[in-house]
Amino acid sequence: MTATPPPDPFLPILRALAAHQVSCVVVGGLATVLYGHARLTHDVDVAIDMADENVARLLAACAALGLEPAVPEAPTALADPVWRASWTADRHMVDFPWTQPSGPLRLDVLLDPSVPFAELHRDAVQMPVLGVPIAVASLTHLIALKEAAGRPQDVDDVRQLRALDALHVQREGQPPAATEHTDAGCLAVREFPLTPVAPGHALSVSEAAQLAQTARLSPEERFGVLYSLWSFWQAVGGAARGRAAATTPAHAAPIVLTGGRLDAHHDS
Fold first, then answer.
1. Closest to 163 (Cα-Cα) out of 205, 196, 124
2. Residues 130 and 195 reside in one and the same domain
3. Domain annotation covers residue 165
4. Of 111, 116, 167, 231, which residue is most buried, by most CB within 10 angstroms?
5. 0.70 exceeded by the pTM?
């Protein structure tokens, strides 16, 4: 008997934001994955236009999804810059979080992104996924946001994103040389001559191999990688989930293309 796959925690949010015409830009972990770094995230992070009418559209989208504020604050105050400043200064809030009490959906709305929304929106890259239009922060802006955040996950994401940027530049200037098809039909690293992004921050061979593979995928295929990682994480329950978190980085699962099929392989 085939197990029912867990509900997608990302696409319903993106669909609702698009359906309600919310002016927003995807940032955070999902944006990082869509650029080609295969790692786990559990939510959708966005920056939005904080104009009254756009906040109203956001609230309508959240209501349609059954999302509720995860903090004891009035979401209508998102449109008020005084309230937002108070949340960031007095409560040290970085985002306004929404959760789905009966499901896996989580949406985080940035309160005061280090890159102004007008700039994020101006330079956003369109990455349609399964028919849903998605505006994703430019690679330059995504790196800037993560450098400003400065958490360990952000530091690692910046390292990976800079490597992806370097790989893109190399491929624009010369024929692709980073990967080749093996007899088994999988992508394998042949050469990955990236300049280290900072002393001591060069990619390992396995990291370079994974980036080289996911960089060649479409945004939809990268989205599929994320769903595979998230589904596996959901399948690892209770104490086993804690052991996995303690021993395996979320981005460490090797991703291979085998016979045209995308697989996320995990050791049990």
1. 196
2. no
3. no
4. 167
5. yes
